[in-house]
Write a structure and sequence with these properties.
159 residues; mainly alpha; Arp2/3 complex 21 kDa subunit ARPC3
């Protein structure tokens, strides 16, 4: 019972941190390049797949404030975060976490490009490239910092 409650608290906390960081940087979070400061914590899902749920919930909360809010932003993107972060966990687990973070960055970039193409008519390939640049910088940076902190700390939240 304690383990399950602890997981719920950790998942909720990470989701809220994602949403708050994204909203705190909202002046550039909702531009077509999608440079969301909250993305810097997304690599946490390469360490434990339960945090894929955090990214889904955090993304939903942050997207409530998007100028493009609609079914694509509120249904497709959170689901895409759940799937991409779960797959990124396995990529990171069986290769290196940084490769899992790059996988997530490219998955999310493709999802955002499709979302902006469908909901706002943005060019697909150009949007993918600009979002990829921001995603890769943020997720790789976040992954490097997390790995360094964990190396010094000697482990992860639950392991």
């Amino acid at each position: 019972m304690y383990k399950r409650m602890s997981d719920v608290v950790q998942i909720s906390l990470v989701a809220c941190i994602y949403a708050v960081l994204t909203l705190a940087s909202s002046s550039f979070s909702y531009l077509p390049s999608q440079f969301r400061l909250g993305e810097i914590i997304k690599p946490i899902s390469t360490f434990d797949k339960k945090f894929a749920v955090s990214m889904m919930v955090g993304n939903f909360l942050a997207n409530l404030f998007s100028p493009y809010a609609g079914p694509m932003e509120l249904l497709f993107m959170p689901l895409s975060n759940l799937i991409g972060c779960t797959l990124g966990y396995y990529v990171g687990r069986y290769t290196r976490r940084i490769l899992g973070a790059v996988f997530i960055a490219l998955w999310i970039s493709a999802s955002v490009a499709v979302t902006l193409k469908v909901s706002a008519g943005f060019p697909l390939f150009h949007t993918f490239l600009s979002v990829s640049a921001a995603e890769i910088v943020l997720l790789v940076s976040g992954c490097v910092v997390m790995e360094q902190v964990l190396k010094k700390r000697g482990g992860f939240v639950n392991g």
